[in-house]
Every structure is written in structure tokens, then in C-alpha cells.
Design a protein that fits this description.
Keywords: Hydrolase, Nuclease, Nucleotide-binding, Phosphoprotein, Toxin-antitoxin system. By secondary structure, the protein is mainly alpha-helical. The chain has helices at residues 6-24, 29-34, 36-53, 58-63, 69-81, 88-113. The longest helix is centred in the C-terminal third of the chain and has 26 residues, at 88-113.
Length: 123
């Protein structure tokens, strides 16, 4: 397994956030829970967020404590291991309350830490 750079992991996280925002645009909670395909797509991308956050180096996380790394990773674990017991009320709260601040923070970190893109030159 190749080691992905912090830059790529953060951009993976940002892409997952963007996908979730695209999927739920114009949705109310009731419409969201009635659309199984959107629920599945959102849950998958919340899982991607946690999957990408997990290998971010500890020292990098320590420098950027404005992201709740443990919470992002733990949410992924809960969704993966309790798939049939997903509480969509909690998922909706996560994506409607916490996603935009996460997006803003990820964008700021990427622009500040990696103004020229990936320092490792990865694709």
C-alpha cells in the first residue's frame, strides 16, 4: 500500500465534502431519508472522510486541531461497523451542521500549507 501525502488526503476529504454537498443540495431531511440512493451516497462519502483522515500524520493533526480528527474517524468506524443501525437523524445533523465548517477549514489548510499543490508531486 502506497503512502499518500497529507495534501492528497486532505483533498480526498474535501472532495468527499463536495460530493455530499452536491448530493443533498435542495433536500430536506424528509426528502433525504426517502431517497435511498442519496442516503447511500452520503454515507459512503462520510466514510471516505474518515478513511482519508485516519492516515493523516499525527504531527500534522496536532498542528491543525481545528479539525476534530478523532470525531471524523470515529464517525466512519460507526457507519462501517453498524451499517444496518444507521441513525439518519445524526447523519443529517453532521452533514448540515458540521460539513461547511469542515470544508472551510480544509480549504484554508490546503491553501496555507500547500500553496503550490502537492509537495510530493503525486497525482
Amino acid at each position: 500500500m502506497s503512502r499518500r501525502s497529507a495534501y492528497l488526503l486532505l483533498t480526498d476529504m474535501l472532495e468527499a465534502v463536495s460530493a455530499i454537498e452536491e448530493y443533498i443540495a435542495g433536500y430536506t431531511f424528509d426528502a433525504f431519508v426517502r431517497n435511498r440512493m442519496v442516503c447511500d451516497a452520503v454515507v459512503r462519502n462520510v466514510q471516505v472522510l474518515g478513511e482519508a483522515a485516519n492516515p493523516v500524520p499525527e504531527d500534522f493533526r496536532d498542528q491543525h486541531q481545528d479539525i476534530e480528527w478523532t470525531r471524523v474517524i470515529r464517525t466512519r468506524h460507526i457507519l462501517v461497523h453498524d451499517y444496518f443501525g444507521i441513525d439518519y437523524t445524526i447523519v443529517w445533523r453532521i452533514i448540515t451542521v458540521h460539513l461547511q465548517p469542515l470544508r472551510d477549514t480544509l480549504q484554508r489548510i490546503i491553501q496555507t500549507e500547500f500553496p503550490d499543490g502537492d509537495p510530493m508531486g503525486s497525482l
